[in-house]
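This part of the workshop introduces the protein records we will be handling. An example says more than a description, so a record of this kind follows:
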Amino acid sequence: MLAAPFSDHARLARQAYELPSYQAYLRRLGETMAVHLREIVAAAGIPDSQSEVEWRIKDPASFAVKAAQPDPEDPTRPNYRFPCDEITDQLALRVVAFLPAQVEAVEQALAEDEAVVVSEVRNKGQRHGAERQFGYQSVHVLVDPGPGLGAPDPPKDYRVPRVEIQLRTQLQHVWAELEHASRYKGAAGSRVSRKFDRAAALIEMADELLQEIDDAASTGGRAEEAARAQAALAVSGPGERVDAHEAAAGSRLTARALRSFLAESFPDAPPSRGAGSEEWIRRHATQAGLTTVERLREAVRSVDLAAIDRVFREGVTWERNQVRCLDDALLAAIGPDYIALAEQLVPEEDAVQRAKRPRVLGWRLKRLREAGVTR
């Protein structure tokens, strides 16, 4: 039973959502997305035996409940004025893989995929406060299907909905399914919740240990290749193409590797507020040719981080987080070429940012030059 004042709004939204032609369209889109996602998983080097792709269409009753939610900033208005256009999990897909690195590989592949546009990345494992340190772990990637996907067109007066893709390890998936089931069974009391928290902590530890085991097994027989990769790094500079030995050395700049690098390089700066900005700066680095941790480290070490920090801390009121610090370091290391690259990476449809980003970077580079930090 939906509560007033938005019950009529939700009822009409459900009617539009349940239109047979729209439901049929969602099913065709789901099938197309699932096929494409399996191709992405395979291209990321993940065997079929170590991954699973699932999809579902949101239940109409659940859709109506969501459509009835009030706007958190203005409770007199519905949160979704046009539910069929705005609710992002009408169609949801899920990739379940064995290891955290495989989850990150799929996340990275989605960011680089030309058939979809990533609009947001939500790392659900980062949302728990001090009173609940461990809990639900999953990466939710919101994507807009693009023309290159080959998906069917929606019915007249309907838009292509934003699609949610959940990425989890096998252990995270088991935890989430059991936790979800316990809520519906009414068993999620305080004692059960504490047990789930303990299980989540153990799962996080187990995932990390399994990843370390896999990393050790996959790199143990490649010491000679790793040595050659390090030798290649010693004679090459930022922006040059990475050779096959570097990829074999297992030092690729994945999302996981970037987070560790940011914490290591900028320990006094706060982390970014979400995985979206980390993926944004990772894309800038890789497009600049810094596709391994070693190459990124060489570029950052080529500049004076303390001097850069002094330049931009004077008279500044905004937060200089780790991603912003790396952005400044890459600007100092690469110079005008970084500005040109940054402009290219702004989506063409975002005309405002496309004009603003080069202008702001140009101003920042000018300040660095005036301070003698870079030429």
